[in-house]
From TrEMBL:
Belongs to the AAA ATPase family. CDC48 subfamily. The lineage of its organism: Bacteria, Pseudomonadati, Pseudomonadota, Alphaproteobacteria, Sphingomonadales. Residues 113-251 form the AAA+ ATPase domain. GO terms for cellular component: cytoplasm. The keyword Repeat applies. It comes from Novosphingobium hassiacum. The keyword Nucleotide-binding applies. This is Transitional endoplasmic reticulum ATPase. Keywords: ATP-binding, Nucleotide-binding, Repeat.
């Protein structure tokens, strides 16, 4: 149970938690003890048992260090690392890269760039990749957060964390704030993740922060979701995540490009035809294709051991045998429908 409730804790955080729980256990027995001035008597230590309640109390104070500090990244992937998704790339180039790179031009013309984009589509299609790539191409910083992390009750102080996140983003602007799993921020339904009140507060804090983002302050928020139909409508209103970008499964040309990208560093035998593999991988996502390449590489190593020189068509054929598209026909139809409804 402890392991589960300490999601996001690093080793040092767990050590701090154990220490705090032990302190709480001593406090139960010696409420008046001053830890700064006095040592705990040996007979108390001999009988000391750290109970569940001590950990529960300690968890309220100890936060994972990753949440205390906002991690600013400078992404290394760019447009060249993305296969297919031409429409989505185009939208992000115009809506994010252009205004972040030319704020003065937008200002002179009195054009307000959008503050929030919502990338939606099946998992593994490259939403996170797109957000990172647009940050790199716009020469912007990148701060990423998972919505479920904001709701995790042990993190506590979600509002403060969000405020810190946006403050940091303004400091390091131009900056992209990437919020993944935005569908888990639905107060009414709860998502099994946070308590409904916590969720409502998190949503309101994010909205307030976004409302407070002056246009041209060079902070743009990109949200992502696999379940656009579950996203809180409050998040989609004008001035918030009002630019919707569909990120779907790649076309056959897109798949060939993606296979090319992921085999860049792989010596391929002359008989490997990426176009043919692309044709045989209908509905495969970028992540699925990356996995096919990885499996083919492993097959080559298994076959040739340390002597492996190249990856052959047979290695790919075996890899395809073991692979399946994550996105089913039915899912694809559903996304098509949602796309129509969200327009
Ligand atoms: P999502 O955020 O949509 O769930 P990700 O961006 O996390 O998907 O994709 C996971 C991984 O799959 C990426 O890091 C990348 O290696 C690969 N991938 C997914 N889509 C593409 C794509 N269009 N082009 C190249 N690689 C891709």
């Amino acid at each position: 149970e402890l392991a589960r409730t300490t999601h996001g804790f690093v080793g040092a955080d767990i050590a701090a938690l154990a220490r705090e729980a032990a302190i709480d256990a001593v406090r139960r027995i010696m409420p008046k003890l001053d830890f700064e001035q006095q040592t705990v008597p040996q007979e108390v230590l001999d009988d000391l048992r750290v109970e569940r309640e001590d950990f529960v109390k300690a968890l309220k104070r100890v936060q994972p260090s990753a949440m205390r500090e906002v991690m600013v990244q400078a992404p290394t992937v760019g447009w060249a690392d993305i296969g297919g998704l031409d429409d989505a790339q185009e939208k992000l180039r115009e809506g994010v890269e252009l205004p972040l790179k030319n704020p003065d031009a937008f200002h002179r013309l009195g054009i307000r760039p959008a503050k929030g984009f919502l990338l939606y589509g099946p998992p593994g299609t490259g939403k996170t990749l797109l957000a990172k790539a647009v940050a790199k191409e716009a020469e912007a910083n990148f701060i990423a957060i998972k919505s479920s992390d904001l709701l995790s009750k042990w993190y506590g102080e979600s509002e403060q964390q969000i405020a810190r996140l946006f403050a940091r983003a303004r400091q390091v602007a131009p900056c992209i704030v990437f919020i993944d799993e935005i569908d888990s921020l639905v107060p009414a339904r709860g998502s099994g993740q946070g308590e409904p009140q916590v969720t409502a507060r998190v949503v309101n804090t994010i909205l307030a922060e976004m409302d407070g983002l002056e246009e041209l302050q060079s902070v743009i928020v990109i949200g992502a979701t696999n379940r656009p139909n579950l996203v809180d409508p409050a998040l989609l209103r004008p001035g918030r995540f009002d630019e919707l970008v569909y990120v779907g499964t790649p076309s056959v040309e897109g798949r060939a490009r993606i296979l090319g990208i992921h085999t860049k560093a792989m010596p391929l035998a002359g008989d490997v035809d990426l176009g043919k593999i692309a044709a045989a991988t209908d509905r495969f996502t970028g992540a699925d294709l990356e996995d096919v390449v990885r499996r083919a590489g492993l097959n080559a190593i298994r076959r040739a051991g340390g002597e492996v020189r190249e990856v052959t068509a047979a290695d790919f054929a075996d890899a395809l045998e073991d692979s399946r598209a994550t996105v089913t026909l039915q899912m694809e139809e559903e996304y098509g429908r949602m796309k129509g409804e969200l327009k």
